Amino acid sequence: MMLGYHLDLALRSFRRSPALTALMVLAIALGIGASMTTLTVFHVLSGDPIPGKSNRLFYVQLDANEPGAAPPGAEPLEQLTRFDAEALMREHRGERQVMMTGGSVAVQPAQADRPPFFASARYTTADFFPMFETPWRYGHGWEAADDTAAARVAVISHELNQKLFDGADSTGRLLRAGDHDLRIVGVLAPWRPVPHYYDLFAGRFAKTEQVFTPLSTALQVRLPIAGSLTCWGGRTTPDPRAVNAPCAWLQYWVQMPSAADAPALRQYLTAYSEQQRAAGRFERPSNVRLRNVTERMEFKRVVPGDVHLQLWLAFGFLLVCLTNTVGLLLAKSMRRAPEIAVRRALGATRRAIFGQFLVEAGSIGVVGGVLGLGLALLGLWGVRQNPASYAQLAYLDGPMLATTLGLALVASLAAGLLPAWRACQVTPALQLKSQ
Amino acid sequence: MMDIRPILSTLRRHKTAAALIVLEVALSCAIVSNALFLIGQRLERMQAPTGLAEAELLHIRLRDIAHHDNAEALTRRDLATLRALPGVKSATSVNHVPFGNGSSDSGVSLSSEQQTPTLTAALYLVGENALATLGLKLVEGRDFLPEEVQPDSALEAPEPKVPAVIVDRGTAARLFPDGSAIGRSLYVFGPSPMRVVGVVEHMAIPQPNGPRGEYLTLLPVQPSYDDGNYLVRVDPAQRDRLLKDAVAALQAVDSQRIVMERETFDDLRHEYFRQDRWMAALLVAVCIALLVVTAFGIVGLASFWVQQRTRMIGVRRALGASRMQILRYFQTENFLLTTIGIVLGMAAAYGVNALLMRLYELPQLPWVCLPIGAVTLWVLGQVAVLGPARRAAALPPVVVMRGA
Fold first, then answer.
1. Is A242 exposed, middle or buried (0-12, 13-18, 19+ CB in 10 A)?
2. Element containing residue A374 per DSSP (H, E)
3. Which of A173, B191, B279, B343 has minimal CB crowding within 10 Å?
4. Rounded to the nearest 10 degrees, how much is the dihedral formed by the CA atoms of B48, B53, B56, B57?
5. How far is B135 from chain A (nearest CA, A)?
């Protein structure tokens, strides 16, 4: 009842000063548009890439470096040596485990008239697919036996399957990679985890690789490997990918049955490190780092600094817009002191006046919010024109849409509090007398 | 100036509105100062010189489809073919290029027994004619001799011997602060020394936006095409045509290779800084929007005040105040409020900067940003208040008195 009356009053008041009202709506819309644009980008980039598993997938780091490389206890090497990765794979202590690295393969289409091109590749082990829950279009991953046998098999992405086979079921067909043939055993459905959490070296928001093949196969046929490589030992290493090379270049993930298994896993890895120390391979104090997906994304500061800066900037802007709105609302409410006095004299309570002004502020917020939503959509379109790899991911989803309108309403109500309070303090007698 | 006391006493009666203007100006000032600083930082980064003859350089990167066994010989043939093209001044092979997608870094020591390296430097492996092709300016010592240049397979030996090395001035000064670097020894690959034969004025590291430092070494090791990049120095007037010719010529040498990248160096630079340009443009847009909103806020509150003080203005006009004095009154009032806002804003600007410094490892806000931010807001305030103030000054005293 009261709300309808207040809305009617608000509408009359807007009609009396359209310029001022438009100014307030525009200020809220700009502030909301800017902050929702950046908040959406932030929300997309910092999302959980594998809900339900992000607390029980663990990234393993061991300290295999030489004694003088860093102070004891410092952050250990980010990747494992081939020796350690293979040893941990053999001991098989988790539910699932994978070792991997990235690279690229020269793909030669079967049609002679199509030029060869490089496709990004992931060299890994059989558990990769179930561990990271890849969706399948055709076929399936390879078996652990294929890893052992360095089988010439491959899984390809949906995108590559479209490009090479026009989207047909290509399982069983051959993929010409470099000068070797790989038999396609599976085709993924479209899949792009955000961020590219399983290998942050390949680019934090990299696209999913196009070719997956066993690491053992890639090593055997010498497919080009790319990625971070750290060697030590004071001299050059002819083949840094050899089993015994003092070089760290493999990423290692373990899936445990639950998050509570982390201490047991850490204990096991510490025991492994001690064993390697006893054997003389590790020369530094045992220093195991174990981070789950969430912790690793935080540690690697996955969300780019620019995105953080934009978020700060946009909320600063929103704050200025709100201060502006408070000022204008206040000006407006003070100008209407005579009107308030008349309403008070005719029996309106302070509460009613307070409510009336809040409804007025709220309706400005709702209109500003809707307009701001439009601006945010425009802003996100702008973000998608941005060259950064994450840009094309910036789309508004349902929760963010609700947040936009909610934020606009809360912000405008907050802005309306002070003016509304001042309005309900108006003493009718004084005002009426002065008229 | 005589107007100040009545202004202060009026403001005391309108504390909330005055405080809101001050707050808005302070917030704007804090944000604009920091944004200006960030914009300046991006622009500076984008304009940093590489030390290369950028306008004359073409960049081409090839990769094998299948593994070639004769990559070194093919590289020599490629380079000879490129150099023979009319319009090409010189050509070389390098492992990384500034603004390219890759970097090799290594610890550099001053003695072979050193446990911790003196510094970490970008390792540039450069082939024949590198200094002439890149356009690096030698300030001391000499260029590599042709016989010093080795193929990159030399680095696969267990203890590679690279007798000569060239560094840039910054690296030389950091390694040998006590005098000339020429003839001194560096250790990168195990126990065999590399002697510094030359010092170039400046060269950028491959990833100037990256987290790594500024130091670099140039080693006379010619990368094969499959591990490197070709840089071709040409007549700038013909570079677009020569880029096409060079790629065609390389394809003719051996077609079993994929051209991964082909561009002028200017395009490479342009591409590398796209994100910075975008961010700078965004910051400029936000600053403009912020100032516009602030200006409208001032216009709104000032108009309200003028309306509220109609009677006061009328009395003053009736008592002989000129239009100019009324105008001045509102201008001075705005100046006072903006000044308080700016002072608070500067403190806030340093607060925000301190926060950003801690969170994102940004440098300290340089003081020059503050006067720029302050002047911007003073001007903005004066422009914004001009309209309402003129309306106030234009009020005819009689009407005002009667109307009230």
1. middle
2. helix A350-384
3. B191
4. -80
5. 30
